[in-house]
Amino acid sequence: MTLSKLSLRNARRQTRDYMVYFVTIVLAASLIYAFNGLIFSREILELSGVMSELPLIVVLASIVVLCILAWLVHYTIDFLFSRRSRELGTYILMGLENRQVSLLFFLENLAVGGCALLLGLPLGGLMFQVLRAVILTLFGLPYHFTLALSLNPLLLTLLSFVLIYLLAQLRSRKKLHNMKICDLIYYERQNEKEIISKSSKRQFLFTLSGICGILGTLLLLAGNFLLGVLGSACIITFLYGFFISFSSAVPAWFAKHPRQKYKGQNLLVFRILTSKLASMGILLATISLLLTAVLITEGTGLTFHAIARNRARLTSCFDLLVSFSGQEEGLFTDYLQDIQDQVPVTMSHTYEIYLGETGQLSDYVEDKIRFYQYYSADPVMKYSDYAFLRAMLGYPAVSLEPGHYLIHCEPHLKRLMDQYTLPIELGGYILEPGGVYNEIFHQDSSDTNGNSFLLVMPDEAVTAAPASHKLYAAMTAQPLEEAQYAALDPGNLPVDSGLWMRSKAQTLEDAASQTALFVLPLFYLALVLIMTAATILTIQQLSETNRYRSQFLLLEKLGMDRKEMNRALRLQFAIYYAMPAVPPVLIGSIFLLYLGNGVEPGTLTGASHPLALLGLSLGLFFLIYGVYITMAYSSLKRNVLPL
Asked: In 543-580, where does DSSP find H-type helix?
């Protein structure tokens, strides 16, 4: 049999035995091609001026992805080398030279990578169309399916895979060139030594790692960059210290509590896990670190998407909103004339936001919830202006009874405002509460329609109130184009002009751009990270198939029924996959809740509440993680348990 035929046979066997690894490489190739397609897509880059930053961000994300994938390929090839060292040594005993065996091993791994790449490219074309559809939908544009492989993304993906596989196989080739036959044959038996053998040192490291974990989490929550870096170092120390000491301490704990060995399937599970835990501390810590990065990256992406979407929703009711708080009235008048000349306005209104005599409603809100009080007194709007703006926006008309006032607030304050029953005095009038309304009304800052809320008063009560700022709201016949917005941007005026403008079209476009620029690359990283971590765990588990089979055959002869063996296998699987996942869930959950609660009040509510986003993050995390667990369990159960 020639080397090429032998390589192909071994490649087919490797693909069959480690299908999880092969599938992961196929998916990784498709993801790399899909995101490479974004770099060269003029259609995507021309959606917005901000999208010109997309190639740089995708390249940075791809570099990280390629490093992760290179580590996966390197680890897998090195692992397969150790598992097949006796076979490779046998080839040399049969008369092959070291360089021929090295070439054989190189070709079979290259064949696996080449097949994965060939399958991944068409799938990558489909994934690119999915990404394209998502981005065009974000910008509110129609999507038409066109499946085709582009040359530039294809060449870049091919180059990436060639570099990954060439670099990953350098070490194994060097080993094969230098190792003797006896070293190859017994290489598989060289188990990693227990890192810490003394019980006192294990207990000290376990305690120290726990302290580092708590300290690191608190430092990450501090919100300071330098403290965040220090906190990350503490978290990494915790993960490695915990798994090194925990994996070494388990056998010692059972030695001190021998009765626990013989409860249920503990003895069997204990014996199966001991061999792994004693030598996998570093690996489990690395996997746990990857899973922590997965949950944080994925959750951060969901949070950023929710923030961008909800901010755009809360600030895009008017097609155009201009705020003026300067002294030169002529500047404001000239600016509005420029808008009338350049933009097809269908309806508009100029009005003022006033200040009340006290800040009693602001104080009430600040006492109840986290609230940023920008005004020296409560913001007030005339009822006539309010009624006109409601009609402009198509909201139902509301009436203001004599001697009353209305409150218009953002949705998250509705319940709180319904409970407010105190009268408010303005312009010599004492006014009673007359109703609370919470439609979207652009209330996100001090120079819009109030900061989260405003009071709607009778016109006669507001006559003598001091003005805070002037506003111009307009609805247009068609969305404001990017060129029009750039031409009217008050940023071109002096800093102290007091002019500020926001366009609904630009707001929605900015939200779509932020999602495309930051959220999609974050999900890209998260997906590759979790596939890598789960693949390595699964490879380690499936590599023990032959040993597990012999153990369960022996147990069957000793009288254990299949139901008990199945229960023991499930328990062993649960412990093995749960160990590296528990710390990431705890750390990631605290981080994501802090991140979600750190934004301005009212941004993340309802389906976008931090708890809901955390639940969705955990759901996606365990969905992908569970797929790998299910694949590994079904494969091992089929090949291990006696029929």
From this structure: 545-557, 562-578
